[in-house]
């Protein structure tokens, strides 16, 4: 059985104090309410990682970063390395989010380097893919998402690929309140799984966790997570409220 995961991507939200409050509320609610063994990951901004890691210690909640640099260390002012992330207790790192692709020009090739260095340092990449509305309207969305996976991930060995979590986030659904229908989500997730199968075989494809992201909320998470190829969610806006985030976690 592949792992089910709900990860919260706080993006550039929450001051230090607010972040600690949110993380401790999540940890307490999870302790009291969550019976499933689903993976739960909080991805706060860099400056909150260390303190949040202390708060989640000994709980079911794991820690992730929202980005990393592609090089191990050096003269890269303002950047954060994977080794630094590991040193504050991060186990996951979100890579290739559409906001980073758009605002920071991150290409599939560049993301492949980030995937490599994350895996070399024992961090689990949550690799994001997804199409724009115009790509969907032109009918090229399936091929576009497949090419994102091919170009950033398909150089990996089977054992490394098995460590990657994939998040399908249609750009038109991010922060818009427009969620993909269950049919749209399931179609793309099945295509992604099939594409993985064509490269790594059925066993690997079957073991790969594929999350959905894009206006996932407590009131639609249950039906999305019930799709056979949807293994959880990468949550933006709704992860900023502990009650909503934990309700989503409880939607399996
Ligand atoms: O981008 C997302 C998570 O990475 C999704 O954001 P929203 O849940 O706010 O649409």
TrEMBL record:
One of its GO terms (cellular component) is cytosol. It is found in: Cytoplasm. Pathway: Carbohydrate degradation; glycolysis; D-glyceraldehyde 3-phosphate from glycerone phosphate: step 1/1; Carbohydrate biosynthesis; gluconeogenesis. The active site is at residues 97, 169. GO terms for biological process: gluconeogenesis; glyceraldehyde-3-phosphate biosynthetic process; glycerol catabolic process; glycolytic process. One of its GO terms (molecular function) is triose-phosphate isomerase activity. It catalyses: D-glyceraldehyde 3-phosphate = dihydroxyacetone phosphate. Its main location: cytoplasm. Substrate binds at residues 9-11, 175, 215, 236-237. InterPro entries: Aldolase_TIM, TIM_sf, TrioseP_Isoase_bac/euk, Triosephosphate_isomerase, Triosephosphate_isomerase_AS. Belongs to the triosephosphate isomerase family. Involved in the gluconeogenesis. Catalyzes stereospecifically the conversion of dihydroxyacetone phosphate (DHAP) to D-glyceraldehyde-3-phosphate (G3P). Homodimer. This is Triosephosphate isomerase. It comes from Sporocytophaga myxococcoides.
């Amino acid at each position: 059985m592949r792992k089910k995961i709900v990860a919260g991507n706080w993006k550039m939200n929450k001051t230090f104090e607010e972040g600690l409050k949110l993380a401790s509320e999540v940890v307490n609610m999870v302790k009291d309410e969550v019976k499933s063994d689903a993976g739960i990951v909080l991805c706060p901004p860099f400056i909150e990682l260390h303190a949040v890691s202390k708060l989640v210690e000994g709980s079911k909640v794991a820690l992730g970063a929202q980005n990393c640099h592609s090089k191990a260390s050096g003269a890269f002012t303002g950047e954060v390395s994977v080794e630094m992330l590991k040193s504050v207790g991060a186990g996951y790192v979100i890579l290739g989010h559409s906001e980073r692709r758009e605002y920071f020009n991150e290409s599939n090739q560049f993301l492949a380097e980030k995937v490599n260095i994350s895996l070399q340092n024992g961090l689990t990449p949550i690799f994001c893919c997804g199409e724009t509305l115009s790509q969907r309207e032109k009918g090229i969305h399936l091929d576009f998402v497949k090419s994102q996976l091919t170009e950033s991930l398909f150089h990996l060995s089977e054992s490394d690929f098995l460590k990657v979590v994939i998040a399908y986030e249609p750009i038109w659904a991010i922060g818009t309140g427009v969620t993909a229908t269950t049919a749209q989500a399931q179609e793309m997730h099945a295509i992604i799984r099939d594409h993985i199968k064509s490269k790594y075989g059925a066993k690997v494809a079957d073991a790969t966790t594929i999350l959905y992201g894009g206006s996932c909320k407590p009131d639609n998470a249950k039906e999305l997570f019930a799709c056979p190829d949807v293994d959880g969610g990468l949550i933006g806006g709704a992860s900023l409220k502990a009650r909503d985030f934990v309700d989503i976690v409880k939607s399996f």
